[in-house]
Amino acid sequence: MKAALAKYDQTKQYTLAEACGIVKDLTYTKFDSSVELAVNLGVDPRKANQMIRGVVSLPHGTGKVTRVLVLCTPDKEEEAKEAGADYVGLDEYIEKIKGGWTDVDVIICTPSVMAKIGAIGRILGPRGLMPNPKTGTVTMAVGNAVKEVKAGKIDFKVDKTGIVHTAIGKASFTPEQIYDNAKTVLSAIIKLKPQTLKGTYLKGASICTTMSPGVTIDIKAFSAE
After folding, report:
1. Closest to 42 measured CA to CA, from 186, 184, 198
2. pLDDT digits over 182-199, tens only?
């Protein structure tokens, strides 16, 4: 940690491009750390019209293998399998989930099976696995949904403290790849600014890897780009 902190000025705000270059040098883990972006927003998540939630496709993907479960009727199973879904089925997987199995990253389903999935909502909800039409995980086009998730589509949501946390890549990415992914997410967040919001929307942002200190981003400079 001391070596990492000595590599940059903690009191300084860096441009996004500078921060993406610095964060690679702060990683000392033996595994390929995730690069994480945190954006502090001046919103009140308790108000429905200030709940910031969005979906973006990262230009360079997330860098990790995403395990996808598709819950659908038999007529959609082949489409899901051909698109690259790791698990495809319905009743058998619902029973497995009731038994405690949640060894997947994303669950996609068709609208017709949502009634059955509602029974396991209490298991999936806290784990962020509940399919949602707003994030494109409840759809008839299951094949396209699977391909998008596998290619690097992510969804993000502001937490109760007003901060959006999301992984945007790996430490093994080039600074340019990290920059492109970070820019995509920040631009998406800016577009979601509530029209009724008074005061500052973007309060601050930082970027870090799994076990590194955070590098503060000059969010005003980015907004002005």
Report:
1. 198
2. 999 999 999 999 988 888
Per the CB < 8 A criterion, the answer to whether 194 and 11 are in contact is no
Token code pair at residue 50: 């200030």
What's this model's pTM, rounded to 2 decimal places? 0.79
Residue with tokens 């029973």, as numbered in its chain: 95
Q: Please state whether 106 falls in left (phi above 0), alpha (psi between -120 and 50) or beta.
A: beta
The sheet with strand 215-217 has its strands ordered as 163-170, 34-41, 202-209, 215-217
pLDDT tens-digit series, residues 15-68:
999 999 999 989 888 899 999 999 999 999 988 889 999 989 999 998 988 899
DSSP assignments along 111-161, one per residue: GGGHHHHGGGHHHHGGGT----GGGT-B-S-HHHHHHHHHHTEEEEEB-TT
In sign, the C-alpha dihedral spanning 174, 176, 177, 178 is positive
